[in-house]
Every structure is written in C-alpha cells, then in structure tokens.
Write a sequence for this structure.
C-alpha cells in the first residue's frame, strides 16, 4: 500500500486513528504501510472506503 502513509498524512490522520475507526490495531496499519503485510482486496477496499477515496485515486 505504497500511498497509504502519504494519503493518511495529507488527511491529518494518525495510524492509530485510522486503526481505531476501522476496528484494527495500529501495528496492522503500520505493517501495510511498510510492506510487511499485503492486504487482501477486501481489506484495501475497507481502507479506501474509510478514507473516503475513490478507487482510481487509491492506495497503490
């Protein structure tokens, strides 16, 4: 999720805030941002939806 950290920063949202909103842990978000984990499509869609992004301007 190459752009997650950048987009999250532009929106002024911390990893913890995003994680809490979705119901996940902060380390899970960090793992996606650093590439330690690769999200399933359904996970990526949930993040895109939570950040109110369109799929075309998404996280990849």
């Amino acid at each position: 999720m190459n752009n997650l950290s950048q987009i999250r920063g532009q929106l002024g949202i911390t990893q913890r805030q995003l994680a809490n909103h979705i119901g996940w842990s902060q380390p899970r978000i960090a793992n996606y941002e650093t590439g330690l984990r690769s999200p399933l499509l359904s996970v990526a869609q949930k993040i895109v939806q939570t950040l109110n992004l369109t799929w075309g301007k998404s996280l990849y």
